[in-house]
Amino acid sequence: MNGPERRKYNPDNKTGYEYALLADHLAGLIEQGEWPAGSRIPGERALSEEYGVALDTVRKATKILRERGLVQTLKSKGTFVTPRD
Q1: Is the pLDDT reported for residue 62 higher than 60?
Q2: Distances (CA, A) of 83 to 15, 21, 68
Q3: Which of 46, 57, 66, 70 is least surrounded by Cβ atoms within 10 Å, i.e. has the fewest?
């Protein structure tokens, strides 16, 4: 299969649910400022392709980010990084 190289979200091969590991990785991108407050994160399909995981894995990871208060999803608009206090 030719195509773009997939990003690694678990380079240390930690054990756990894939969606939780992906959520931790995405949270790290937010904390490091790669996705600043107010920015729209890539869509679920784009993240699925970028990381080589199932769409449901991305959906569960995004749900975890919402529960942590890191992102907010607006229907038909996308998912955005929430501002920090």
Answers
A1: yes
A2: 31, 23, 13
A3: 46
User: Residue 38 in contact with residue 83, Cβ under 8 Å?
Assistant: yes
d(CA 14, CA 85): 31
20's CB contacts (< 8 A; 6+ apart) are: 61, 64
Global confidence as pTM = 0.86
Q: Please determine, for residue 85, whether its predicted confidence score (pLDDT) is greater than 90.
A: no
Asked whether 23 and 61 are in contact (CB, 8 A), the reply is yes
Is pLDDT above 70 for 4?
no
Closest among 28, 26, 2, 22 to 10, alpha carbons compared:
22
In 1-85, the DSSP E strands lie at 71-74, 78-81
Amino acid identity, position 77: K
